[in-house]
């Protein structure tokens, strides 16, 4: 993700920043005009507005261009993001600092000019008291500093989103404080107007007091309305974006990645959210990849075991199912390797579907066959019946089609046995596999092979027949000696077309 930015786009981004940085000029002009209109000090207008144009317009514009220069070089591809992100992160505070200093200079000029350059008797410009001078030299710079900080913070959110969308870069420096920002915003919006009114109350009386208080009230309404808008956008915008992304992740959308648009705890939280979602994506990718080599349900069960990656050994009653293709060696001799593998994959996918549909788990593939289990490791109600139904569905599905481009027909043999099995992760070092052990497993494998002797397609043990009751039509084939067992096993066939 690295889409070049056109010169026109860079110019538009730079122009918007300069407009935001110099937006203090029209705001200051508006406040000044309120004072001039309400006090009737029209002779003071040229000098006051001229100083505002020079300082908050011209000087501020030049300082802002210089501040933006490193970001401009990055957007042009002339600098790395790692070398630019500190300037990005500090853009609101640096811009606000310079505006605060310029406003302080401008305020001192205006207040002292009423003593040095203006005759109140001739101009009508009221001279402020020392108390008011001190209070205004504090209130105005602090207010304009706060206003500029949140205006540029709001701009920075859009810029960081643009950089994230075009370059994929996200802020990684977090040295701001959300609490401090919130406290400063509340203090400036609430305390500054009160301080100005208190200063007027202690400085004037009579008609002059009424005029000063009225002036403060009008300016305060304008200032609070404008400041509250940008403070809200700056503080709540990142939280709103993060909340929306969390909602989508909760719905299962792991493609979410949120641009970091602030340098405080919210920005850090956004970065951690991105890392979390990235970890979830990696875990999901691992699960899906793992599930191609191990049954997805087994993979999910292993991953849920608190990150151990293993399943401890346990004994449980389960039903084991083995499948194999009759005459596969002969078929393999007549098919090219690529055609054989393609046909075998289609066949195994056909066999997998009924096993999964009936709650079984494929433990492993054994050449042209597979080894599946019901009720281990995942619970499966009526597991013996489920295994027999899966076997019948496999026979129907396999018998109705051919596989691969060459149209190979496969006849499937199935052996099923029910009993206690031992299941768990076995292996050495970092190479593990989940498997089942025990007499039940050995008997199911032997029954699958015995289909060749009996000319059948599905053989089940006596324990499976008893567990199924009269759900299916079984044929008693008598007892047979099974290697590794001292007792003979009673064998039953299953009629794929009949049910009890």
Distance between the termini: 62 Å
List low-confidence stretches: 306-310
Rounded to the nearest angstrom, the radius of gyration is: 40 Å
Domain count: 2
Residue share in helix: 55-70%
The percent range for strand residues is 5-15%
Morphology call = rod-shaped
Q: Can you summarize this structure?
A:
This protein is of the alpha+beta class.
Describe this structure in words.
With 500 residues, this protein is α+β, with helices and mostly antiparallel strands. The protein has two domains: 244 residues, no CATH class; 189 residues, Nucleotide cyclase, GGDEF domain (Alpha-Beta Plaits), CATH 3.30.70. Helix content is 63%, strand content 13%. It contains 15 helices and eight strands. Strands 1, 2, 3, 4, 5, 6, 7 and 8 form an eight-stranded mixed sheet that branches. A hairpin with an 8-residue loop joins strand 7 and strand 8. Helix 2 packs antiparallel against helix 8, helix 3 packs antiparallel against helix 4 and helix 8 runs parallel beside helix 9. The longest helix has 45 residues. The chain is rod-shaped, with a radius of gyration of 40 Å. About 1% of the residues have low confidence.
Give short descriptive properties of this protein.
500 residues; alpha+beta; Alpha-Beta Plaits; 2 domains; 8-stranded mixed beta sheet; 13% strand
């Amino acid at each position: 993700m690295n889409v070049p930015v056109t010169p026109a786009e860079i110019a538009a981004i730079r122009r918007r920043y300069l407009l935001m940085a110099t937006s203090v000029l029209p705001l200051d002009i508006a406040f000044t005009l309120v004072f001039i209109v309400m006090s009737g000090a029209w002779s003071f207008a040229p000098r006051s507005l001229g100083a505002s144009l020079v300082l908050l317009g011209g000087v501020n514009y030049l300082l802002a261009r210089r501040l933006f220069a490193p970001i401009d070089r990055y957007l042009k591809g002339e600098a790395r993001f790692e070398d630019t992100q500190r300037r990005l992160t500090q853009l609101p505070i640096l811009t606000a600092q310079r505006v605060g200093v310029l406003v302080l200079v401008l305020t001192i000029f205006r207040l002292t000019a009423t003593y040095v350059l203006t005759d109140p008797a001739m101009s009508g410009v009221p001279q402020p008291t020392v108390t008011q001078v001190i209070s205004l030299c504090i209130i105005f710079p602090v207010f304009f500093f706060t206003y500029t900080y949140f205006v540029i913070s709001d701009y920075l959110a859009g810029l960081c989103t643009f950089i994230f969308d075009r370059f994929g870069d996200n802020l990684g420096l977090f040295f701001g404080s959300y609490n401090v920002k919130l406290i400063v915003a509340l203090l400036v919006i609430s305390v500054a107007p009160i301080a100005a009114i208190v200063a007027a109350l202690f400085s004037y009386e009579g008609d002059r007091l009424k005029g000063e208080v009225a002036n403060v009230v009008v300016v305060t309404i304008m200032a609070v309305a404008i400041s509250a808008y940008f403070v809200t956008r700056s503080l709540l915008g990142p939280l709103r974006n993060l909340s929306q992304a969390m909602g989508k992740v909760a719905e299962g959308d792991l493609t979410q990645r949120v641009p970091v648009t602030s340098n405080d705890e919210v920005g850090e939280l956004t970065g951690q959210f991105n890392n979390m979602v990235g970890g979830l994506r990696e875990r999901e990718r691992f699960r899906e990849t793992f599930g191609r080599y191990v049954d997805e349900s087994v993979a999910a069960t292993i991953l849920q075991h608190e990150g151990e990656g293993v399943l401890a050994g346990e004994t449980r009653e389960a039903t084991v199912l083995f499948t194999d293709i009759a005459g596969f060696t002969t078929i393999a001799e007549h098919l090219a390797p690529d055609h054989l593998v393609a046909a075998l994959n289609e066949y195994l996918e056909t066999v997998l579907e009924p096993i999964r549909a009936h709650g079984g788990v494929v433990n492993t593939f054994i050449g042209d066959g597979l080894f599946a289990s019901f009720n281990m490791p995942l619970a499966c109600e009526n597991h013996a019946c489920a295994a027999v139904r899966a076997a019948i569905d496999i026979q129907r599905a396999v018998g109705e089609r051919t596989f691969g481009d060459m149209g190979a027909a496969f006849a499937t043999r199935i052996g099923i046995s029910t009993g206690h099995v031992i299941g768990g992760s076995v292996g050495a070092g970092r190479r593990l596999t989940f498997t089942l052990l025990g007499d039940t497993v050995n008997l199911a494998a032997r029954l699958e092979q015995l289909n060749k002797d009996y000319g059948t397609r599905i053989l089940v043990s006596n324990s499976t027949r008893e567990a199924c009751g009269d759900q299916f039509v079984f044929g008693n084939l008598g007892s047979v000696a099974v290697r590794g067992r001292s007792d003979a096993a009673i064998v039953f066939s299953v009629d794929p077309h009949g049910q009890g």
